[in-house]
Design goal:
Elements lengths: L9 E8 L5 E11 L6 E11 L10 E6 L9 E8 L4
Parallel strand pairs: 3-5
Antiparallel strand pairs: 1-2, 1-4, 2-3, 4-5
């Protein structure tokens, strides 16, 4: 069977906080080209994502996916942990 392509957005980022119950804060960094100065600038967004198993630790690289609103700020779900943090 073929997998259906999801219309939901996905992002890869690093967990910066896991102090909340079943919620992690994920920082997603990207490079943006500055039109005038012709340089690349680092930009960063923070997303609150649902972590049902409380499996994520600070420093883990995770894949998050867009979902329905789960709370006031939480609109993303952790799909999988790509890389565990080196302790």
């Amino acid at each position: 069977m073929e997998e259906q392509k999801s219309a939901r957005k996905t992002r890869v980022g690093v967990v910066t906080s896991n102090k909340m119950d079943k919620t992690v804060v994920v920082s997603v960094a990207r490079l943006v080209h500055h039109q005038k100065y012709r340089k690349f600038i680092r930009r960063q967004n923070k997303f609150k994502a649902h972590d049902a198993l409380n499996a994520c630790q600070i420093g883990d690289r995770v894949l998050i996916e867009e979902s329905r609103p789960l709370s006031k700020d939480k609109r993303w779900v952790v799909v999988k942990v790509l890389e565990k943090a080196a302790i």
